[in-house]
Amino acid sequence: MTLIGITVRSWLYEGSCALENMVLGMEERAVMDSINQLSTDEFDACLAIIVCRSGANTFAHLGQIVGHYRGDAQQIWDRSTDGGPTEGETYELKSLTRIHRVPDEVCGSIEGDGVHADRRAAVVHYLLDMG
User: Fold this and answer.
1) 40: pLDDT strictly greater than 90
2) Which of 30, 106, 122, 126 has its CA 20 to 30 A from that of 116?
């Protein structure tokens, strides 16, 4: 058996339009934030948990980072009520799951970098189980 190295990172959308921005990014196969900076060596071997809080609920979906976004990132979130994320690198995302509400028991507290590293494996399993 050959083991492969996969990195699991978390992207966090914040603000009153966080869920809207998550949906717009998912539609365009893109994700952006100011925290995650990937090297080209990490493409394809990086799973992304994209997460946001809306009221008391946490929503997330899972994707695979496949490279730098090839389109015009300005046009992804220009339809958003708040203009979407404005800083950071935009990556192309292959969605692996739909957006689901994730129980707090699974994801824990959501901080500035999204899902804490200790909880990411649990969130990946939860999202894959949910589909």
Assistant:
1) no
2) 30
